[in-house]
């Protein structure tokens, strides 16, 4: 699926929080960590790494939760203050945000290029070996960025 024309918009279930993404993300991948299973209610969540400067919150307020990862890093999770849709995370790395792909108005183009935390994937999920996969977290996300760029070259 080709990338859309940017900007694209997204938001929460009740409509209070709206955001705009002004340029293509750096990557899109699945996270199979236990926390993502709990928060999404599914077997994985789809993470979309974007540059902070390409992201704009247009309306609404978020409430945050400081989640302590196994690594000891604190990840600030943002939820709509009214309906509590999980919308994005601020990771400890400066300059990027991690958006939940499912909160986009249209997510057809967000085909994941990889998987992280496959060690904790649920038993019935098959990981495509042709993708960029990590058994734990991706300390260096460069391979995920490169795979996304490759997938969208003309
Ligand atoms: Zn809401
Ligand atoms: Zn996760």
From TrEMBL:
Taxonomy, superkingdom: Bacteria
Signal peptide location: none
UniProtKB keywords: Lyase, Metal-binding, Zinc
Record domain CENP-V/GFA: where: 8-110
InterPro entries in alphabetical order: CENP-V/GFA, Mss4-like_sf
Any one GO molecular-function label of the UniProt entry: carbon-sulfur lyase activity
PROSITE patterns linked to this entry: CENP_V_GFA
Family from the record: Belongs to the Gfa family.
Protein name, UniProt field: Uncharacterized conserved protein
Organism per entry: Devosia lucknowensis
Highest classification ranks of the organism: Bacteria, Pseudomonadati, Pseudomonadota, Alphaproteobacteria, Hyphomicrobiales
């Amino acid at each position: 699926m080709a990338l859309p024309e940017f900007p694209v918009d997204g938001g929460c279930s009740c409509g209070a929080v709206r955001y705009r993404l002004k340029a293509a993300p750096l990557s899109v991948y699945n996270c199979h960590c236990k926390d993502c299973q709990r928060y999404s209610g599914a077997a994985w969540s789809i993470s979309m790494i974007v540059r902070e400067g390409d992201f704009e919150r247009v309306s609404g307020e978020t409430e945050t939760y400081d989640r302590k990862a196994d690594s000891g890093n604190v990840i600030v999770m943002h939820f709509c203050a009214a309906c509590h849709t999980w919308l994005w995370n601020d990771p400890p790395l400066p300059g990027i945000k991690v958006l939940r792909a499912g909160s986009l108005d249209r997510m057809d183009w967000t085909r994941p290029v990889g998987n992280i935390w496959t060690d904790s994937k649920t038993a019935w999920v098959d990981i495509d070996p042709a993708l960029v996969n990590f058994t734990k977290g991706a300390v260096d996300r460069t391979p995920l960025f490169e795979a996304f760029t490759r997938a969208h070259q003309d």
